[in-house]
Amino acid sequence: MTQDELFKKLIAHCKEYGFIFPSSEIYDGLSAVYDYGQMGVELKNNIKKYWWDAMTKLNENIVGIDAAIFMHPKTWEASGHVGAFNDPLIDNRDSKKRYRADVLLEDFLAKQDEKIEKEVEKARKRFGESFDEKLFRETNPRVVEHRAKRDAVHERMVAALNDNDLEELRQIILDAEIVCPISGTRNWTEVRQFNLMFETKMGSVAEGASTIYLRPETAQGIFVNFLNVQKTGRMKIPFGIAQIGKAFRNEIVARQFIFRMREFEQMEMQFFVRPGEELKWFDHWRQTRMKWHRALGFGDEHYRFHDHDKLAHYANAATDVEFEFPFGFKEVEGIHSRTDFDLGNHAKFSGKKIQYYDTETGESYVPYVVETSIGVDRMVLQVLSAAYKEERLENGETRTVLNIPAAIAPVKAAIFPLVKKDGLPELAHQIKDMLKFDYNIQYDEKDSIGKRYRRQDAIGTPLCITVDYQSLEDKTVTVRHRDSMQQHRVAIADLAAMVGDEVSLRKLFSKIV
């Protein structure tokens, strides 16, 4: 099965089992907008709790807020979004399809990397234990050729992006002989900038309405509340403010399911530090955030850092945490050192003094900021992509299973009576009632036990609890574990503690601190 086929199966699985639906589907949907179903919203909420608790409970100096989506229009002038929140777009005249010029070039670079790795892998198989990978990468003609082509395009792309040279971006695409994936031609238009913010009107009558924007990020709500939080919370530098909320971007090239959408959710934390200490804290959060991702147990090799070639106008350091999706390594989180740009600009545009008095140094200054920003929807897709498995069992059957970490699984346990009679359903309901106040529990009595197991495997339920005739005699039940499919007897009186230990966030947090 190719990665593309796997991804299509995952998308179909998400709809079939109530994770994610196309929005407004009865009206043929709305491009790049999706709804979360009954399983998806539980997974999404659990991911948000994992992030929120890791920020606010594991760090005494981080607190949370929930700022409004609508903000004063000057906010977005101060932040630079009105003047600089643009994507370089290019059209193919034959297919009429529009692309981000930088993404076309990044895809080209990725293909060159793939060609290099294929050559290396073939050589490794041919030479076996005697293979000198470093020497091969430095001397093999094909590898050297691919590397030279890649590096030349990469160097030109970085320079063009930093200089905002749109003509050069188009010329690089032509020189690299990049074709439209749809038409297969190189009939490209000029590259032009497109602002990504959604505009709307606020006012009781159209004539007097003012233009405002749907926020394209949640960070600015934190910055404009810096003094409110610092003073009311008596916060001392360094400290952080966390927020989870919706953001909106008019993405022209929305693609890859929920990876890039027009309405999405962010989890952001802005960490305020002394000027001069920002790079130390940047490195701290770079390592800490990677630990948070890897604690999920999807394999360290599927994560990597990608340092930015082009820094945003406000940043002096930036890196991405990338995860290996079925469509390649892509960003799931960004860590940025934003300097004092945001607070400084809001002070300038608002006319208000935004400073912190440091009692330890006796100085007043505008704090510098280190940001961690993660997309909730991308995290959902990351978890589903990593967890989706099709396994062939010893008896020849195939099962589809989501190996979602128990702590963030949508349903923590399913309760089954072996049969629908003889008091077994009544006891099963009693067990459900015992657990439901603490955990999301499902009850199922339809079909055979095997089919019920398969349904729970498909939604990622870590534990299945079966009530049988022995349960009536000795007050024990059969507990079946999703990943190993092993079963054992557990006393009903011990179930709550066992489930709690299995699904606790503690196991994840212990890998972070």
TrEMBL record:
The UniProt entry's sequence similarity note says:
Belongs to the class-II aminoacyl-tRNA synthetase family.
- NCBIfam families registered for this protein in UniProt: glyS_dimeric (TIGR00389), PRK04173.1 (NF003211)
PANTHER family named among the record's database cross-references: DNA POLYMERASE SUBUNIT GAMMA-2, MITOCHONDRIAL, GLYCYL-TRNA SYNTHETASE/DNA POLYMERASE SUBUNIT GAMMA-2
Q: Which SUPFAM superfamilies match?
A: Class II aaRS ABD-related, Class II aaRS and biotin synthetases
- Pfam families named in the record: HGTP_anticodon, tRNA-synt_2b
For ATP, which residues are the binding ones? 249-251, 259-264, 331-332, 375-378
Annotated positions binding substrate: 100, 217, 264-268, 371-375
Record domain Aminoacyl-transfer RNA synthetases class-II family profile: where: 152-417
Outline what the protein does.
Catalyzes the attachment of glycine to tRNA(Gly).
Q: Which organism is it from?
A: Alistipes indistinctus YIT 12060
What reaction is this protein's catalytic activity?
tRNA(Gly) + glycine + ATP = glycyl-tRNA(Gly) + AMP + diphosphate
Task: Quote the CDD domains the UniProt record gives.
Answer: GlyRS-like_core, GlyRS_anticodon
Principal location = cytoplasm
Its Gene Ontology cellular component terms are: cytoplasm; extracellular exosome; microvesicle
**Keyword list, A-Z:** Aminoacyl-tRNA synthetase, ATP-binding, Cytoplasm, Ligase, Nucleotide-binding, Protein biosynthesis
Q: Which InterPro entries match?
A: aa-tRNA-synt_IIb, aa-tRNA-synth_II, aa-tRNA-synth_II/BPL/LPL, Anticodon-bd, Anticodon-bd_dom_sf, Gly-tRNA_synthase/POLG2, Gly_tRNA_ligase_bac, GlyRS-like_core
Q: Which residues belong to the signal peptide in this entry?
A: none
Location in the cell reads:
Cytoplasm
- The name on file for this protein is Glycine--tRNA ligase
Q: What does the subunit section of this Swiss-Prot or TrEMBL entry state?
A: Homodimer.
Question: Corresponding gene?
Answer: glyQS
Q: Name one GO biological process term.
A: diadenosine tetraphosphate biosynthetic process
Q: What Enzyme Commission number(s) does the record list for this chain?
A: 6.1.1.14
Q: Which GO terms describe its molecular function?
A: ATP binding; bis(5'-nucleosyl)-tetraphosphatase (asymmetrical) activity; glycine-tRNA ligase activity
